[in-house]
Amino acid sequence: MARALWKGAISFGLVHIPVELISASLDHELDLSMLDRRDFAPIGYKRYNKQTGKEVEWDDIIKGYEYKTDEYVVLSDEDLRQANVKATQSIDIHAFVDAAEVPLTFYEHPYYLLPARGGEKVYALLRETLRKANKVGIASVVMRTKQHLCALVCVADAIVLNTLRYADEIRPTDDLDLPGNTLKAAGISDKELRMALSLVEGMSEAWAPAQYHDSYREDVLALVKKKIKAKQTKTITPPSPEPEEERGSNVIDLVALLQQSLGKRVPAAPPRKRASGAAPRKTAAGKRKAA
Questions:
Q1: CA angle 165-150-105, nearest 5°?
Q2: Ramachandran region of residue 241, left (φ > 0), alpha (ψ -120 to 50) or beta?
Q3: Using CA of residue 265, residue 270, residue 275, residue 278, what is the dihedral sign?
Q4: 216: exposed, middle or buried (C-beta count within 10 Å: 0-12, 13-18, 19+)?
Q5: Which residues, listed in sequence order, are joined to residue 146 by a DSSP beta bridge?
Q6: Which has the closest alpha carbon to 163: 113, 114, 107?
């Protein structure tokens, strides 16, 4: 069982749900060490006192807020808790909004909320309410000295707390060079759009996350094994020359590309014998075909 990162309660109205928080994501990032290229020895880092230059042990490290240059207010964990005891112990729901109204750019990191002892029934009540109403709860919680905006979302049998970015943390698109927001302004023809929609329809399938995996990580680990087998563990591969940019027309024949994509992604299925009385159906490309 994963260790709880935070313990407290969900609070909305007069309802109080004791919960524990655990991370909902697993980190499979490649664990690469930094080495000195002269002798391949690992690089280490030390925590040191900037005045004396001496190394500092973890037990001697405390937190402080620099209120002016080189002047600090010491803040212990208890100071940070007492600044607002309620905020550090509760997930306060401020409102319920339609799930589709929260843009994906706001979502940051998911955590599972688990009911603590005695909170199972009211936890299930909130979960089923979110599910039936198709709403998410917009709340705030303090974790690791920062107050987070968050969304409580019903996912299968769990309530997921997903931290959200604040509005002022989202870069506006006003100053970005984006295509026009109409077909005419973007230079897209009706034919190109219809073919693109056909391609999307042909590539549409049920969401099956288990079929996707980090193939790049697997390729790097395969390269590691290959270098070990070839006894090239200390060989530094030089960078390849940058490919020359092709000079020519920037005009793209989207119709030709879409036709090629449709032929590759949506091969024509062999005709099947039509059952008596069966109505014709449409294929992904929009043609009528025997069912």
A1: 35
A2: beta
A3: positive
A4: exposed
A5: 143
A6: 107
Query: Quick check: 159 and 173 in contact, CB under 8 A?
Result: no
**DSSP string for 2-20:** PPPSEEEEEEETTEEEEEE
DSSP, res 48: B
> Rounded to the nearest 5°, which phi and psi values hold at 179?
-60, 160
Band of residue 277 on the pLDDT scale cut at 50, 70, 90: very low
Question: Residue 109 forms beta bridges with which residues?
Answer: 163
What single DSSP character describes residue 215? H
Q: Can you list the pairs that 114-122 forms with residues at least 24 positions away whose Cβ atoms lie under 8 Å?
A: 114/4, 114/19, 114/20, 114/21, 114/22, 114/158, 115/17, 115/18, 115/19, 116/7, 116/9, 116/18, 116/19, 116/20, 117/18, 118/18, 119/9, 119/17, 119/18, 119/19, 122/15, 122/16, 122/17
Residue-wise pLDDT for 139-153, tens only, equals: 998 887 788 899 999
Q: How far apart are CA 61 and CA 47, in angstroms?
A: 9
- pTM exceeds cut of 0.85: no
- Cα(41)–Cα(63) distance, integer angstroms: 32
**Distance, CA of 235 to CA of 50 (rounded, Å):** 37
| Structure letter (DSSP) for residue 241 | P
pLDDT > 70: what percent of the chain? Answer: 85
Residues in the chain: 291
SS3 assignment, position 131: helix
Tokens of 39: 């002798």
Residue 63: what residue type? K
Q: Which has more confidence, 28 or 266?
A: 28
Position 92, amino acid: D
